[in-house]
């Protein structure tokens, strides 16, 4: 059932936003996904998916990525354009793979059932909004750590992977979302819960700590 819902929404997304024809973009996403899938399918850690997933490029306004139940995850052309190397692309795709492998995408199923008849040009924004509301800050932190572990196992440079946060910070600051980058002056679990994500600086700091404690990276 989840695959059927995912396929239905996938068709609408591709109809509305699947306009990518540039070989460089398709090749970057293709080689990155092949590398990540190869590692995640071979590892023995609990929760790893038994099948490869496919990433599609969408022409949306913001630098972002998201995923759905089924076979697909999505990255925007804008994010690809702002990534100077494969590493930040690998990290954001690995983060979305983590939502599959850790079982988080099941939370999106009720929202997808309600959005099934939404037209393609509107559904992208609604899906990203639903994802923010349904995933918890703890799940986002878990997806970050899983993604970084997967990227390291695939041979990507961790410091370069974390340059994704510089791209995302620039996007948020351009839109005036200062708290999304720095958080609040006083830490607030309620603010995080309502937003769905910890601040970008908190996420990056947590990953740097993860690198030191798990891998001895300075």
Automatic annotation (TrEMBL):
Coiled coil: none annotated. Binds 1 zinc ion per subunit. It holds the Pfam family Peptidase_M48. InterPro entries: Mito/Outer_Membr_Metalloprot, Peptidase_M48. One of its GO terms (cellular component) is membrane. It comes from the Bacteria. Keywords: Hydrolase, Metal-binding, Metalloprotease, Protease, Zinc. Its cofactor is Zn(2+). GO terms for molecular function: metal ion binding; metalloendopeptidase activity. Transmembrane segments: none annotated. Belongs to the peptidase M48 family. This is Putative Zn-dependent protease. The lineage of its organism: Bacteria, Bacillati, Armatimonadota, Armatimonadia, Armatimonadales.
């Amino acid at each position: 059932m989840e695959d059927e819902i995912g396929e239905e929404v996938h068709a609408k997304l591709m109809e509305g936003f699947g306009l990518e024809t540039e070989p460089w973009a398709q090749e970057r996403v293709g080689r990155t996904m092949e590398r990540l899938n190869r590692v995640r399918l071979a590892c023995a850690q609990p929760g790893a998916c038994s099948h490869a997933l496919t990433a599609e490029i969408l022409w949306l306004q913001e630098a972002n990525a998201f995923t759905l139940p089924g076979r697909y995850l999505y990255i925007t052309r804008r994010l690809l354009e702002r990534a100077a190397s494969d590493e930040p692309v690998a990290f954001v795709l690995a983060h979305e793979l983590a939502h599959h492998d850790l079982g988080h995408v099941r939370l999106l199923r009720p929202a997808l059932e309600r959005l099934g008849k939404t037209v393609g040009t509107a559904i992208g924004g609604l899906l990203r909004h639903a994802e923010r509301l349904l995933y918890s800050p703890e799940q986002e932190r878990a997806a970050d750590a899983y993604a970084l572990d997967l990227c390291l196992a695939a041979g990507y440079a961790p410091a370069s992977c974390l340059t994704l946060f510089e791209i995302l910070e620039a996007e948020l600051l351009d839109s005036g979302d200062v708290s999304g980058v720095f958080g609040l002056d006083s830490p607030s679990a309620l603010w995080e819960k309502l937003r769905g994500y910890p601040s970008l600086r908190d996420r990056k700091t947590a990953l740097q700590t993860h690198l030191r404690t798990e891998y001895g990276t300075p």
